[in-house]
Amino acid sequence: MAIDTHNHPLAAILYRMMPLPYHAPPEANAGALHSNMAERTDEIWKTSSLAAVYLEGVRGAIPLAGEQLEVMLRLIGACGRPVRRFLDLGCGDGVLASAILGNYPEAQGVLVDFSAPMLEAATRRFADQSGSVRFVNADYALASWTESVAEGGLYDAAVSGYSIHHQPDARKRAIYREIFGLLAAGGVFVHVEHVAPASAWGAAINDELFVDHLHRRHPEKSREEVAQTYYRRPDKAANILAPVELQCQWLREIGFADVDCFLKIFELAVFGGRRPLAD
Fold it and tell me: Phi and psi of 87, rounded to 5°?
């Protein structure tokens, strides 16, 4: 069932989720890649064309988007600690950060992405809240990204939405370890993510669900046109999906407590855990 943005309990947040008009900046220069990054496929997210397709045509049609935000906020709120400072890794245009600031208007957010078009969209989203956010253009495929966000101390919460799945599994685990090191004791990590299906059958059902939601968002197009334009996108080649159960196991091995998958519908999951009060 499509999300009712008027009657949903997070209607105000869902309204802020809707993409702003996209103004494409000049294409990012991908020629300066390090030689050891030559085989990466996620560089496509630096292009303004893909950013526009995703922000204007796809993001608002993600199944259970409102419920994902609600679960994220409940997890952050259940930690029982003030949220003075939070990290949004792979922030895109700042949807998750916007939801957090809606509940914690005094918080300070650090928003990280390596895509200039996405950061430009996030800058527009927070034009009236510039004092509440800091934008960092950093590539978390490299361990050095943590140096760019360490200033100001540890974080009460860290979130990420539909981004880390572009990294190889070994790098995913390393990123989770790096996030753990950036959290204050009792701080929470909430991951809204695209995860691997358990079977081809489940994957096919997921595809049908997503295309149905996209078609409702774009009723002026045929279902096949919608699928071709917004679902069978070239960036699919950048996906490196891992099972949610395996990723939860990684979090436990790193030291996260209370690890669980808190919401899942086919390939879309919300999972995470907390840094213990005493390691």
Answer: -120, 135
